[in-house]
């Protein structure tokens, strides 16, 4: 058995590798590394490491060769054409390398009326895979809970969450929970090979007032909810380079399109996902 993970040096990818260790020996896991220096030390630890650039097709076939399975973690690009191209390049390479099993990581902003900048990609993915001839499953993540931890100091200073989603709820999942479920799906052909789509979320979606209450309890600082407008939100985070993209995502949130909750995590792993309160409690160390 050889499982190749793309995006393997990223936040989610690294956690997937750790979770695969519960099922496979390191030499049965191939790290698909965009920047090989980010995989430093992993070869010495027994993993296979292969350079892989979605946008450079000649790198893909050798990186996927001999694999029984690919776990595809998309890149973080907000360029829609690049994202579709990377998927197409990956599928072409899988065909050339005779790899027929795929677990694709996706995001739940995939509805036809979803204004998130990358929603067309997430809508395209299942339709594209349906005719691919591959054995595959799609694992859709809710919003990552993880960035909230490093966001807390700013929220404490603002004394408020400012997401422009009104009274709508948002659903979250931790990257650790997501990686656990992805590895389990990848290692279980019955869960993986029939075009299944899973949605990974915590047990409940949260209104921003509910989230603010949890944050107040954990930080012991008063955090409320004062939403800004979408335009203000885009302006505030403009300098970080993705203000408009994030605003388009929260626009979807304000339409109730990021609130879906499912029981799939429990069905896959046999236990409950980490609640937001427990996640923040375990990870917030002021
Ligand atoms: N659910 C959510 O709330 C949420 C939030 C953010 C992102 N996401 C999605 O979740 C996925 C993983 O997120 P993450 O936080 O793990 O992102 P990340 O840390 O940036 O990881 C992305 C990985 O993709 C690699 N990559 C970038 N360009 C590549 C290319 N051209 N060819 C091959 N590999 C390439 C990166 O390698 P280098 O670092 O070497 O470039 C990195 O290992 C992404 O698809 C992202 O869109 C979801």
Explain this structure to me?
The chain is an alpha/beta fold and 286 residues long. The chain has a domain at 3-142 and 173-201 and 260-270: Rossmann fold (3-Layer(aba) Sandwich). Helices cover 42% and strands 16% of the residues. It is built from twelve helices and 13 strands. The protein has helices spanning 11-20, 57-64, 80-96, 119-130, 147-158, 175-186, 189-192, 208-219, 230-236, 243-254, 264-269, 276-283, and strands at residues 3-5, 29-33, 48-51, 69-72, 101-107, 135-141, 143-144, 160-161, 169-170, 172-173, 196-200, 206-207, 224-225. Strands 3-2-1-4-5-6-11 form a seven-stranded parallel β-sheet, sandwiched between helices. A two-stranded parallel ribbon has the order 7-10. A two-stranded parallel ribbon has the order 8-13. α4 links the parallel β5 (101-107) and β6. The longest helix has 17 residues, at 80-96. It is globular, with a radius of gyration of 19 Å. The protein starts with a strand and ends with a helix. The mean pLDDT is 97.
